[in-house]
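Query structure, 456 tokens:
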């Protein structure tokens, strides 16, 4: 059968959906085309660049009729930068798109036809929300220093001092750093030949506490003129921690293992709800604490704890959800695969005076089945918050065998969420309600919380 389009054809289509990377999706005579830089509702002339059997990729040539949902991105480099995919889309429409994405996955992959989907929880201020930023440092073609972000899917740096989703204080930090690097001839790192010193500038900010951290990732053991560096950075309001991170490897992993304190503490503190968390350069911490609080409030509401429950929190990270739940439960057990995260979880429990949370290092799919078999552990509620690949089937089987009254599933990928819920609901569970939360405006990501209860 002959294909509807071939390479270099120019066709006119209407964009009806958005793909996983934010690209517009439209159909020409039933044939699907993916088109970057377009959004739902655009009518556009596009040129076919690659035509596979069932779908192809095309380039935007002309916007015949722009979508009513198009807005001018606030950030001038939004189109090139790999950070934001949806800034050209009205925020209300972004939320609708994310909610539909969850709904569609639950229907198509999960096989759920009717379910109680509560309205998506959006952000009040969809700009300047990230509490952590990592700016690569390199050389411009003209020899000057480049600090900014990687262009989408590449390692070429777009030079900028202003990220519209990062903390506002970053603008002052980057301005100072650019001057410092130029004045004292600090050599930017070159990925190509593994030479040069300064690789990345990492900043972390406590939104509630106002505390600021700057950590310079270097391919060396020290930075020249460190007195001048400290003198300048500590003038920035809120500065609490200035440190170096040593990374001498030829790798694109950003951070190395060693932290060298230069001034102040090696951590900052921030809160989610009433719980304080200590955050070091290497700690994992949710990047949008305001929305995280809303996400955890929903998880807590769904868990509906009264004070006498035993809760297991699987994939617990630094214990963020565990400690939140511990305020309302008899006992919380957390399981996490990264040992350092469990150390942080224990510290966080201690500094908050929480005694009813216990943490275990290991893969959830190993720890839970083993403890169930050997110690016959029990749970009233099991919370899971897995990475994008979702839960192993063996873990889901153990959950079913343990027969908790409730399962609260927190997910960062609606496709694997739908797959796992299907598995649980084919056995003894029923999906009661589900709610999406936007933690990352202008990106295609969406978080979801689902409540399952045991049928018998
Ligand atoms: N609940 C935490 C972290 C969720 S992110 C929070 O809200 O902050 C998912 C976590 O799962 C990460 O910390 C990751 O290290 C951990 N992880 C990944 N695979 C795992 C596995 N097989 N078993 C246990 N934890 C795992």
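Result returned for the query:
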């Amino acid at each position: 059968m002959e294909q509807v389009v071939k390479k270099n054809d120019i066709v006119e289509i209407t964009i009806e959906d958005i793909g996983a990377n934010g690209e517009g999706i439209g159909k020409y005579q039933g044939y699907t085309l993916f088109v970057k830089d377009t959004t739902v509702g655009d009518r556009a002339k596009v040129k076919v660049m690659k035509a596979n059997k069932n779908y192809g990729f095309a380039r935007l040539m002309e916007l015949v009729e722009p979508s009513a949902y198009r807005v001018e991105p606030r950030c001038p480099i939004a189109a090139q930068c790999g950070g934001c995919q949806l800034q050209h889309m009205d925020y209300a429409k972004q939320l609708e798109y994310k909610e539909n994405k969850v709904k569609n996955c639950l229907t198509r992959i999960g096989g759920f036809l009717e379910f109680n989907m509560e309205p998506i929880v959006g952000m009040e201020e969809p700009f300047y929300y990230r509490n952590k930023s990592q700016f690569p440092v390199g050389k411009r073609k003209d020899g000057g220093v480049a600090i900014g972000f990687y262009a989408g899917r590449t390692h070429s740096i777009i030079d900028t001092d202003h990220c519209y989703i990062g903390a506002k204080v970053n603008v002052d930090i980057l301005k100072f750093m650019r001057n410092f690097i130029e004045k004292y001839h600090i050599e930017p790192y070159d990925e190509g030949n593994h030479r040069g010193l300064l690789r990345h500038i990492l900043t972390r900010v406590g939104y509630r506490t106002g505390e600021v951290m700057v950590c310079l990732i270097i391919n060396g053991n020290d930075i020249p003129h460190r007195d001048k560096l400290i003198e300048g950075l500590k003038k920035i309001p809120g500065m609490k921690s200035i440190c170096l991170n040593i990374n001498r490897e030829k790798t694109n992993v950003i951070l190395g293992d060693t932290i060298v304190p230069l001034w102040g503490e090696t951590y900052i503190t921030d809160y989610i709800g009433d719980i304080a968390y200590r955050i070091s350069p290497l700690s994992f911490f949710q990047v949008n604490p305001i929305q995280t609080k809303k996400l955890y409030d929903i998880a807590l509401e769904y868990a509906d704890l009264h004070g006498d429950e035993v809760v297991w929190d699987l994939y617990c990270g630094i214990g963020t959800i565990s400690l939140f739940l511990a305020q309302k439960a008899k006992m919380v057990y957390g399981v996490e695969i990264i040992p350092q995260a469990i150390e942080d979880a224990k510290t966080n429990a201690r500094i908050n005076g929480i005694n009813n949370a216990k943490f275990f290092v290991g893969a959830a799919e190993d720890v839970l089945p083993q403890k169930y078999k050997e110690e016959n552990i029990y749970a009233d509620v099991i919370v899971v918050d897995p990475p994008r690949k979702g839960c192993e089937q063996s873990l889901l089987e153990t959950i079913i065998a343990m027969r908790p009254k409730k399962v609260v599933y927190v997910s960062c990928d609606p496709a694997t969420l739908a797959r796992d819920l299907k598995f649980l609901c084919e056995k003894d569970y029923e999906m009661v309600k589900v709610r999406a939360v936007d933690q990352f405006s202008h990106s295609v990501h969406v978080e979801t919380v689902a409540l399952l209860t045991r049928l018998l």
